[in-house]
């Protein structure tokens, strides 16, 4: 092993053992959060009242044979299958049919929620107003997905949980299950249940399951506000949940919503769960049942059972409490404590750091100005390494554009390992260079002061994230106190082992988090996990400086480059193994009184003429205002265009029913219909500011909105009425209402078109019509 260590080093054996210990701890920390199948995956089927992975896999395959977006015939077949399975269990499911609108006023549609109730024990005098537990997952999928991970696996696991629970003694609380419709359209099913179903007033708690991938651990990533008892219940119900309160602090800053959002905003307590690994499956053709990780599927199924058994016997009227700080840790489970403890804990750790500083200064002089310089150095290194890592990845994208399709960072962990190892070498090399002017003690306290600033800031502003800085700094500081108080020699093995023991907690805590951030944010935000990693290096600085006194840095440099080279080799064919299918759009444009126009469109940057032989060599790439107008993001994208054959595809119809002045506003009612019964109809206002609008007498918006656009999913058979108000003095010369019917399955009028195989192309058809509002009002 001399190629790893410098010649003449007396501590090479200790350094080797320490290095192996670090690597083993990282491997253990990553392994500890991954789901694992039992030795006999189907052993549970021997017990009638147990979760059956085999049965769940069979049922999942049944509901994901076809693509089934909301409103499609295939979606109806999934609904019928689920209804039949619920009845076979011995339950009495209902279909809640209602017209729903999204809170943001950007989506609407006819939804068919599957609603069923598992009765609990009758109400007792002690709990006169007993609440029900709500289980939720959505059974629709995006148009180009089979909906296995998102969200079929959750639907089937809830179905399996109901089967098990139906065979067992009743829980204290009723369990209401909603398989919601049109979640992908805009949370419509959840909105419809919350607004219109009589059972909504009985809901005391929600458990929602939705997924962004098909692998990895089930994460509890979002609790409701006042979550102390919910977190305590999660820790009690599930032995080793994977969750931490920093996830929610980050999630709140992202523009993401799930069905859970609808209920959280109404003050319903609850927990939100998801799988997030294998992003290549999310909303793509690779979201298939055969690609679901069985271990993840079983973990979620068993978790649902444990959670329902726990909260199904809790008093759901007594859930509100103070927020908690929480995080999972191997062997311990979910550590949690009130968020109000964050600031006192920060004060205690600050005192310990100052004590450590004082003890160290008694042993070796510590210069205050040099310590301040070490603070600035650490901040500079954090920013520089985060920035340079991101720039390096962006450069790689320019050199190898195929990596733009590498949307799944799970295939690229060798890149991450290489980049982090290279960052470590750069970090240590820079600090070794600066050791000419700064002592190790000054450098370590410079990093500790940055950690203290972050600890105090998060404790005050984002207490959910405070654990990330509190506990690692506490254990590292204790190890520093032991070294300085005992005056342990720097050139001894004990020095290295004490530093390692103090750093072990931080290593176990951070390793999964760094990987989680990489998975959640992707390589296009590589700087974030790198910054988190460099923060970790700061409190590991004394250990790193001690180790690399005995290690040959060039060996690790070659290793980091080798890891990235292997990553390049391993992912070179990713875009070939999991290609993003090109999109082909057939468009019929109604231009009355002019003749209709028919176009082929393709949004890809590069046109595959061999696959899309509808496009000739004369096809041009241009904006398409005749299709998308001038008011939506699609209107700013260049499409490849080619003249297409004429068909009988009927465009959506719009008729003005009334026009009147109401106070200072002009109120217009338009009837909208889809003759071809499109899966979705997109509506866009152009040249006019809408002050207020409702659809089917459901409020959509009530604040002035320019370029307002929304969608109608699964339009009712006889169409819908749109009522909108504008300023009575508004100029309408350029006012238009653009309607686009969207089809993902060919209507009868398009059966004659020659299309590429479905396996190679994502096809859709659009029929566009434009209502010239002033011309229509003049008639």
Give an overview in words.
The protein has 779 residues and is of the alpha+beta class. The chain has three domains: 257 residues, no CATH class; 267 residues, 3-Layer(aba) Sandwich (Aminopeptidase); 199 residues, no CATH class. 41% of the residues lie in helices and 20% in strands. The chain contains 22 helices and 24 strands. The strands form four sheets. The chain has a 15-stranded mixed beta sheet that branches. It has a five-stranded antiparallel beta sheet with strand order 14-15-22-18-19. A two-stranded antiparallel sheet has the order 8-9. Helix 13 packs across helix 17 and helix 13 packs antiparallel against helix 19. The longest helix has 32 residues. It is globular and about 95 Å long. About 1% of the residues have low confidence.
CATH architecture of the largest domain: 3-Layer(aba) Sandwich
Q: Helical region count? A: 22
Helix-and-strand structural type: alpha+beta
Span from first to last CA? 91 Å
Our estimate of the beta-strand percent is 15-25%
CATH superfamily of the largest domain: Zn peptidases
Tell me the number of strands. Answer: 24
For this structure, what is the CATH class of the largest domain? Alpha Beta
Write down the overall geometry: globular
Rg of Cα set:
30 Å
State the share of residues found in helices, binned by percent: 40-55%
CATH topology of the largest domain: Aminopeptidase
Q: Give start-end ranges of low-pLDDT stretches.
A: 41-48
Mean pLDDT: 89
Can you tell me the number of structural domains?
3
Largest sheet: number of strands, sense, barrel closure:
15 strands, mixed
